[in-house]
Design brief:
Blueprint: E1 17-21, E2 24-28, E3 34-36, E4 45-46, H1 47-65, E5 69-74, E6 84-86, E7 99-103, E8 112-117, H2 121-129, E9 132-137, E10 153-160, H3 166-182, E11 188-191, E12 197-205, H4 210-225, E13 230-231, E14 243-246, E15 256-257, E16 273-274, H5 276-280, H6 292-302, H7 308-311, E17 315-317
Helix pairs in contact: 1-2, 1-6
């Protein structure tokens, strides 16, 4: 362990380091441990490289984590050795980390859990040092007093049932974009970093159930119109070869993978914001599959393609509406 702090950028290739980040002193360990073994012809993608990625992507990812209680999916021994979800940051959080205590409905062990809120680079590095590859957040924020606010995001999580792929998800995403436009909503799209796509819109709500009700209505209408290609029910038995439009991710108790988060796949893939042109041009699964190094170059070239979710107008959601109009769902 060095006596003096080093820079986060210098941790790759070391096993341990003490770093100074935004005035916080962090001890980083097991930096040489291989987290992603199957990375090209190299010896693997290490924990030090995970921390380096999150440090470099911080300007883009931090706005999407701000004020949102975090659920980590941790892979302490790498992606091939199992993982676990970690919500209760209060067990191991440093005293400077922002922690909000929130109720946990249905839990048999805790009435409340102390969730971490990633409000700066030091907190992000802290999470990465726990081998927290995946950063999951809800579609709502907590206020200054730690109280959950009503949802500010609407999401449709598109999950392909094999042999369907992200190509079929792209066609469904385009239809959802048209349907949202009928209701005056603009939307953005990102890869899940795994197999599917996720469509988001910035909204304002008065009731925490409004976004779920709206999303369910749209998903069920779409499934009724295109039952050959789309389902709105979670049962795996009905999903083969179709795209599951998961509206339930809008439930305030649920979370989705954050933009720019790594995924616990064989490669260090990333949940990546993309353009609608890229969605339209998707003809094979690899067209919408991006690894950490590629994402860093994309952000340097294009900036944050999800920035409009926080800087653009918000549409008011007042519960379910009828759908149909002039849109012909599907390809």
């Amino acid at each position: 362990m060095p006596h003096a702090p080093t820079r986060v950028a210098d941790v790759v290739g070391r096993d341990r380091a003490v770093v100074q980040v935004d005035g916080r002193r962090l001890r980083l360990s097991n930096l040489g441990k291989v987290i992603y073994p199957a990375v090209g012809s190299t010896k693997g993608f290490t924990k030090g490289e995970v921390i380096n990625y999150y440090t470099r992507i911080a300007p883009a990812i931090l706005p999407h984590l701000a004020d949102r209680p975090l659920t980590l999916r941790r892979y302490p021994d790498g992606v091939g050795a199992g993982s676990f979800y970690d919500k209760n940051a209060a067990r191991h959080a440093p005293d400077w980390l922002r922690v909000v205590r929130l109720p946990t409905p249905g839990s048999t062990t805790h009435e409340e859990i102390g969730y971490a809120v990633i409000d700066g680079l030091a907190a992000l590095v802290w999470a990465a040092n726990l081998a927290g590859l995946e950063l999951h957040v809800p579609q709502w924020v907590v206020g200054a007093g730690g109280k959950p606010q009503t949802p500010d995001l609407l999401v449709f999580d598109l999950d392909p049932g094999p042999p369907a792929t992200v190509v079929e998800c792209a066609r469904v995403a385009e239809t959802i974009r048209e349907l949202l436009a009928q209701d005056g909503m603009e939307c953005s799209v990102k890869t899940s970093g795994s197999r599917g796509l996720q469509v988001y819109a910035a909204v304002r709500t008065t009731d925490p159930t409004d976004t779920s009700a709206y999303a369910r209505r749209l998903a069920e209408w779409l499934a009724a119109q295109r039952g050959d290609a789309v389902v709105s029910r979670m049962a795996k038995a009905v999903r083969s070869g179709k795209v599951f439009v998961d509206w339930s991710q809008n439930n305030p108790a649920k979370t989705t993978i954050a933009p720019y988060s790594l995924r616990g796949a064989q490669q260090p893939t990333v949940s990546t914001p993309v353009t609608w042109q890229e969605v339209a041009e998707c003809s094979k699964p690899t067209d919408l599959l991006f690894t950490a190094d590629v994402v860093l170059r994309r952000v340097q070239r294009h900036g944050d393609l999800f920035a409009d979710l926080y800087t653009g107008p918000r549409s008011v959601i007042r519960g379910p509406r009828r759908h149909g109009g002039n849109v012909t769902p599907g390809p």
